[in-house]
Amino acid sequence: MPELPEVETVCRGMRDELLGKKVVSLWKSDKNLRFPFNIEEASGIIGQKITHIKRRAKYIIIGFKNKNSLIIHLGMTGQISFEKENLNIKKHDHFYIEFFDKFYMKFHDVRRFGFVIYDQTANIYKHRLLKDLAPEPLTEDFNSEYLFTLLKSSNKAIKEAIMNNHIVVGVGNIYASEALFRANIHPEIKAKNITRHQIDKLVISIKDVLQEAIYAGGSSINDYVKSNGELGYFQLNFNVYNRENLPCKICENKIIKIKQAGRSSYFCPSCQKY
C-alpha cells in the first residue's frame, strides 16, 4: 500500500502537470471503487480550473476555482498517470479527467480499494475522512512533547501506536519499521514504557525516514510507481523492512520478521533489544 512518501511524490507530480488546467470532461468505468462515484454530481468541476493540489495524510485533495474538491485515495494498488492526446483506456482504469489541451489524468486500480470522492464543502478539511486526523509527521505539531504525552498511558505496542492516524498520520508499515530501527526501539515494547529519550530519537527518526523516502521518490514495492511512470528507489535503503534473515547492516545479526496486528514487522534483535 502506498504510504506517505509515495502519496506525497504522486501529489508533487500532479502539481507539476495539472495546476491551472481547466476540466473538459469526466469519465468513470462501470465498476465501483471503494466508494461509489456520482459522475453527474461531480460535473460541477467541468469548466473549472485546478487551483491547488494538496496531501493530507494519505489523501490527495484537488481543489477547483469554484471551491469544489476531489479527494483521492490510492488504496493498495491505485496509480495516477497522465496521457496526452491519444487516450488509451486499459483494464483497471476506473476514472479520468480530460483537460482543454487534450491532456488526461487517469486513475488505475487493480484491486479497487482506492477511491475518488467529489465534495462541495468550502472547508474540505471538515470532511468526515479528514476532520479527525492527527498532525502531519513533518510539521512542528508532531514533536517529542506531543508524542510523549499521548503515549505515556498507552498499552499498545509502540509500532501499532505510531501507525495510528489519531496519533500521527502517514507512518505506515514500512516507515514505522525503519524509524524504530533507527531509534533502536523494539516494535513490541508497550508505548507507555518508552522513555523520553527514546521518544526524542523516535520523532527525529520518523521525520528523517519520511523526508529521505520523499527525496527518493518513495519505495517501489509491488504496484507503486510515480505519476510519470518511474520507480521510487528508497527500497534500496531499507535497513530492516523486507529483509528477513538477511544480516543487519549495523551488527550483522539476522533480521527477524514477526506479525503485529496482522502486519509484518521487521527488526534487528541486537540493535532493537526488548
Question: What CATH architecture of the largest domain would you give?
Answer: Orthogonal Bundle
Helix vs. strand class:
alpha+beta
Low-pLDDT stretches are: none
- The gross shape turns out to be elongated
Order of helices and strands: HEEEEEEEEHHHHEE
Mind telling me the CATH class of the largest domain?
Answer: Mainly Alpha
Number of helices, counting only DSSP H or I runs of 4 residues or more:
5
Number of domains: 2
Strand content: 15-25%
What is this structure's SSE topology?
Blueprint: H1 4-18, E1 23-28, E2 50-56, E3 59-64, E4 69-73, E5 78-84, E6 93-99, E7 103-109, E8 115-119, H2 144-151, H3 158-162, H4 173-182, H5 196-215, E9 256-260, E10 263-267
Antiparallel strand pairs: 1-6, 2-3, 3-4, 4-8, 5-7, 6-7, 9-10
